[in-house]
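Standup notes
- DV: blocked on the single-chain target, sequence here:
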Amino acid sequence: MLVVTRTWRPAGLRFAGEIDVNNSSAVSDSLRRGFPDGGEHHIDLRSLIFCDISGIRAFVDAARNLEANHQLRLHGLPDQLERVMKVTGWSDLPGLAMCSCELDTE
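- DV (later): unblocked, structure below
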């Protein structure tokens, strides 16, 4: 089960639960619809329990499709996923950032 909610400080989306091949297209749709105006795209992943490669690809593809000077900022990326992002080189994409800044918990 995956739950996607809007966050306000900073403005973004929170993904909680599991992301896999069965719902990764919903992740892509949420990312596309959640940020129609561009800017920084803050994604809270602290409540993510599981994410397979299709979920990671949804975030990577969203970052690749951003306009110049826009960024997908991943907060609370689980350690295993962060390692995959680094090993594959996806962490070096100009439109993707693994962020450790504070998020509002409300």
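- Follow-up: The two ends are 22 Å apart (CA to CA).
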